[in-house]
């Protein structure tokens, strides 16, 4: 069998300009590398963009989600409904606080939470008894857990069905957290992703719509939660605390000035960056037509604007995905499975006893999803090379 060759198309590349680089270099000309004016400027720009009262820069999307969990008073013994089809961070932040993630399967079209199943799960958990027990993992769940939250994810840049999730959260008096780390700029029924729950979080890893290298942003209109999260991200320092005073048990989740400066510069180009990603997605949609054995991404009617994070196709059930990936690698085309089900990660199986078959839609999407090379700096020629290689490899 021939070996793979060096990639002729990168899996992903950040879209950086000289202005971005100069913005970072300018910070190095100052004495302020942390807790300075740039983070305040970045947060103010985000508030304007989102129409939010508060925006808090943090050092990762994961950190942002963890602070939202803390602000929602989710803790040991609590049960939180969430998705098994996501990056592991959306589950891990619950485990950090010894809460139990209660998984609900996803919509086969979008990969987002199946809101009908969410409603059924909430009904069963509230009813108690055998109805509640069958919703819980086989082991590791508390005997009398308190239902205390919904954490939804905007998968691959498409918002979940937030009107239904909001109605359910209100009906059952639950905090609602929106993991919008993959969906900056997306819109749900004309409304801004990230502002559809009680708290929203964005991530700025290098493959995201904008990047700060590492970093994230929390947005909310909840004044008390914002004050708490600001203190917790800064080692638990409350307003009025000196540098060595700590009112709360907190974390070093701060965003530094270099990252914030890059974020400001990138955010000014958000519309341009989203347009370029949309163009690449359009080229893919055109060139993938007629290739047998694959399914292009699908979007719900409620998604009034997609924000392309990755481009994930699904191979037909009869296609050997691993063999296909190997043949593509031989042609210099890197691809990745996307996502692997959270409940089947080794540490989740060990802790909660999950088994294959527990969430069949998630497992099917996990078995058939294949992320193609994607970024806003891809050319039409590169997209064509990927699709030609895919056609030949199938």
From TrEMBL:
Keywords: Pyridoxal phosphate
InterPro entries cross-referenced by the UniProt entry: DegT/StrS_aminotransferase, PyrdxlP-dep_Trfase, PyrdxlP-dep_Trfase_major, PyrdxlP-dep_Trfase_small
Domain of life per record: Bacteria
Identification of the protein by name: Predicted pyridoxal phosphate-dependent enzyme
SUPFAM superfamilies from the UniProt entry: PLP-dependent transferases
Pfam hit, one: DegT_DnrJ_EryC1
Source species: Longilinea arvoryzae
One GO term of the biological process aspect: polysaccharide biosynthetic process
UniProt modified residues of type N6-(pyridoxal phosphate)lysine: 208
Protein family (similarity comment): Belongs to the DegT/DnrJ/EryC1 family.
